[in-house]
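The following record pairs a protein chain with its ligand, pyridoxal-5'-phosphate.
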Amino acid sequence: MQLSPSDPCVSCNRRSLMRSASSTRLLADAMGRITPSPTVSISTKARTLKANGRDVIIMSQGEPDLDTPDNVKEAAIAAIRRGETKYTDPDGMPYLKKAIARKFRLENALEYQPDQITVGTGGKQVLFNAICASVNAGDEVIIPAPYWVSYADIVRFAGGTPIIVETRPEHGFKLQPDALEQAITPRTKWLLFNAPSNPSGASYDVNDLRLLTDVIIRHRQVWVMTDDIYEHLTYDGYEFVTVAQVEPRLYGRTLTVNGVSKTYSMTGWRIGYAGGPEELIRAVSKLQGQSTNSPNTIAQWAAAEALNGPQDFVRIAKQVFQLRRDLVVSMLNQSKWLSCPMPKGAFYVFPSCAAAIGKTTKSGTVIKTDEDFATSLLEEEGVATVHGAAFGMAPHLRISYTSATGELEEACRRIQRFCANLT
Ligand SMILES: Cc1ncc(COP(=O)(O)O)c(C=O)c1O
């Protein structure tokens, strides 16, 4: 008897062969230490619902809706026409490094030479490489919560131990110096610092930062990885400052990470960069040289134009986001059961839904956690948000205001209705 490949016995056999192969442990132990990014999973679920005809408003994504500025697009097109389509140095081309050095000098009063700068495929890759290049098993990395979803997983992947330090809404979600002091041990390698913060928008002025740098300076084993990716999205006159700028004695112990994704609406171009101590930069570049090699050449030319070219876009984007923030905070605070602080930076709000825990939705679901809240909100009202637990702080929601005003208004009306229906 001849069996065709679609015969049930053949496919059974294949499945059992696959099962026995998987029992020989295909995957690395490190894979068991990480989870899929919840922000990516929720946004994918929302997009699938939308593609299937559901009316869904996506407020779960961490990317600006504004288009990349034209001068940046033109620079990319010109690079293609000139034939700039080959590999560059693994850690970025000299022209872009020069533009980054200029940016650090003019905007952050930091002097980095080209061999102190590395360019990667997004800020995410730079952070990933820097952690993998520096963290040994058992090293501790202090991460203030709520934190960007990837930090803790990257640290775990590298074999390190994330030490999560909770912040409080009444402190504007800012890390307090005494909490930092208590978290430091002889095994502490890094403070992984992000401001303005994703998801809380926490923003530190010079005095806030100095209180933290005063602690770090006393502990010589502690390095600072500062993720400044939301540097330009600041509101109400708040002026961004970065760690090595505030405490020059930490210059040699700080990796200053940044990128063009959020500032210039260039998330899909995938260019991030960092300035820091030569030894670490060399290690990051070595790792990159053995994995992805150079970042996309055309995107590097575009990023150089973003940094060197006119900066009007940055000013306009900031105004747009500030208006949207005001609208969203005001409408969320009019929702029963939600309480939403006013952030000074980034493009997220992080309201508490503590008062909604224990309530029942219109369709009869009891809300036990912030994840239940976010799931029911998506199912019943078609609004995608991310639960705070994904960022290490519950019960909260992270809501991005990266959609047009009309859509934000509609989403907030739906959230108000969802909350009003809770009993
Ligand atoms: C805090 C933070 N850091 C880094 C990144 C990475 O950005 P990219 O890899 O697009 O440069 C993000 C993106 O969401 C972020 O929110």
